[in-house]
Each structure stands twice: as structure tokens, then as C-alpha cells.
Write a structure and sequence with these properties.
Elements lengths: L7 E6 L6 H14 L4 E6 L9 E3 L5 E3 L1 E3 L3 H9 L9 E4 L9 H10 L3 E6 L12 H7 L2 E4 L2 E2 L6 E2 L1 E4 L15 E4 L10 H6 L9
Parallel strand pairs: 1-7, 1-8, 2-5, 2-6, 6-7
Antiparallel strand pairs: 3-4, 9-10, 11-12
Bound molecules: adenosine-5'-diphosphate and magnesium ion.
The site of magnesium ion has 3 residues, from helix 1.
């Protein structure tokens, strides 16, 4: 059996409202126009707008399987039923919520010749690296870092500002809880308990 040509890992990152989901949807739609077979996933904690689609804040959508954000669950869905053999392009939205083993899984998929497109936040509202995203950026073929528009001054925004005092760890897309901010107007939301929980566990990369 010949080894397939390697695929690619593409990361789409930036703060909330920067157009990550929009860009992921655009790339997946173009892949389908090129008659490539697409599998799209989103974590089951992101249930805004649609249960069976990824959606942008501007209401663009793409069908998606909603799964628990663990690499085991993703592996099971792709390999368990042989879906992997009928898939050319794998897209994941909100990849920051996946565990660290998504990193070796992404590398495994790329060695199987797949195009892996991952969209997610690079930093938390406390301005810390978010889950596996920074490691994935380091290992990717291509990184697209988008900016949003600062809601205070209108300049390009690279930060996600958490508004209000919610103590919940993950409040996805809740209206009015987050907004995009530039460096000047960003005030990191500091909470020791939250920061600890968002630390990335050690992972072996082969
Ligand atoms: P992300 O996935 O990065 O959170 P989306 O793709 O869901 O972003 O949404 C991007 C869209 O959000 C933009 O096209 C625009 O219509 C809207 N939007 C709302 N607030 C902002 C903002 N502060 N900066 C840029 N776009 C915004
Ligand atoms: Mg999004």
C-alpha cells in the first residue's frame, strides 16, 4: 500500500466576532464546490442558533455533527464507522474546547492526506493561551489570524472582552457577555479559579 501524500492543517484564529466561523464556512463551501467530501464538527457546548450546523454571528451556516469536545469522541466518529475513508476535508469550529489529544489526532489526519481546517479562539478573556489552539498554530501549514472591530473605538480588535460578572467557566455566545476590544481598551478578566481550569494538560507530540 502506498503512503498518501500529506494533507494540510489550516488554523483560523482570532477573538470573538473576528469572522472565524464565517471563514471556516466559506472554505468548507468552496471545498464542496470542488467536489471534495467534507465532515464538519462542533463541540456540543456550542448550541447557539443551531444544533446540527455551525453558525456565524452573521447567520452563515454549514451542516455539522455536534460532538463532545474530546479527541476520543472525534476519533470514534471518524474511524469507528469508516467515515474517514469517505472524507477529504475535516472542519472543526470552536476547537479551543477540545482536549490536548486533538493535537496528535490532527497530525495523524494530515498524514492520512486529509485537509484539516480548525477554527477557534487563540486567547481566553483572561488573555491566556486557549486550550490546544496555540500548539495547533505552531504545527499548522497555514495560520490565518483575523481581527474583529473594537466596540469602544472601532480599531482592529485582537482581544475578547468578557463583560459582567458571570462565574461560569464556559458561556458560549451568550448575547451581551463578550465583545471584541483592541489592546488599548481590553481589560483582562482575572479569576484564578477560571485560569487554572483553562490550562492545557501536557501532551506528547510525535
Ligand atoms: P467568530 O466565529 O470569530 O466569533 P463569526 O464568523 O461568527 O465570528 O461572526 C463574524 C461577524 O460578526 C461579522 O461578519 C459581523 O457581521 C459580526 N460582528 C459583530 N460584532 C462584530 C465586531 N465587533 N467586529 C467584527 N464583526 C462583528
Ligand atoms: Mg465562531
Amino acid at each position: 500500500m502506498t503512503t498518501p501524500a500529506p494533507g494540510r492543517i489550516e488554523i483560523i484564529t482570532g477573538p470573538m466576532f473576528s469572522g472565524k466561523s464565517e471563514e471556516l464556512i466559506r472554505r468548507l463551501k468552496r471545498a464542496r464546490i470542488a467536489r471534495q467530501r467534507v465532515a464538519c464538527y462542533k463541540p456540543d457546548i456550542d448550541l447557539r442558533y443551531h444544533r446540527t450546523a455551525i453558525a456565524s454571528h452573521s447567520s452563515h451556516t454549514h451542516d455539522a455533527s455536534t460532538i463532545a469536545p474530546t479527541s476520543d469522541r472525534l476519533r470514534e466518529d471518524l474511524f469507528g464507522s469508516g467515515r474517514i475513508h469517505e472524507t477529504d476535508v475535516i472542519g472543526i469550529d470552536e476547537v479551543q474546547f477540545f482536549d490536548a489529544d486533538i493535537i496528535p489526532l490532527a497530525l495523524e489526519l494530515v498524514h492520512l492526506g486529509k485537509r484539516v481546517i480548525l477554527a477557534g479562539l487563540d486567547t481566553t478573556f483572561a488573555n491566556e493561551p486557549f486550550g490546544p489552539v496555540p500548539n495547533l498554530m505552531a504545527l499548522a501549514d497555514e495560520v490565518t489570524k483575523l481581527s474583529a472591530v473594537c466596540m469602544v473605538c472601532g480599531q482592529p480588535a485582537i482581544h475578547t472582552q468578557r463583560l459582567g460578572q458571570s462565574q461560569e467557566l464556559v458561556v458560549v455566545g451568550a448575547a451581551g457577555l463578550y465583545e471584541a476590544r483592541c489592546r488599548t481598551h481590553f481589560e483582562p478578566y482575572v479569576d484564578e479559579h477560571l485560569s487554572e481550569q483553562l490550562e492545557l494538560p501536557a501532551v506528547e507530540i510525535h
